[in-house]
Amino acid sequence: MAAWLLAVGVVVAVSLVISSAVSFWLALRQPSSLEELGVKPTYPRNALPEEKIEAYQQLKDKLRGEFAKDMAGDQWVCKLPAHAKDLLKYRLMQRAIGDMSLLQKIDADARGYWKLFSKGIITSKFWNSVLAAERELSQEIEALKLEALAIEPSQDPQGIVSEAMQLVVRYGDKIWDKFPEPPENPGGAAMAAAAKAVAAAGGLPRPGAPAPFAPPGPPPPQQGGSTDAYKWRQDTEEVEISVHVPSDTAKTDIKVQFQPKSLKVLHCGKMLVEGALAAPCCPEGCTWTLSKGSVVVTLEKASPKPWPGLFAQAKT
Question: What is the 8-class DSSP label of residue 301?
Answer without folding.
Answer: B
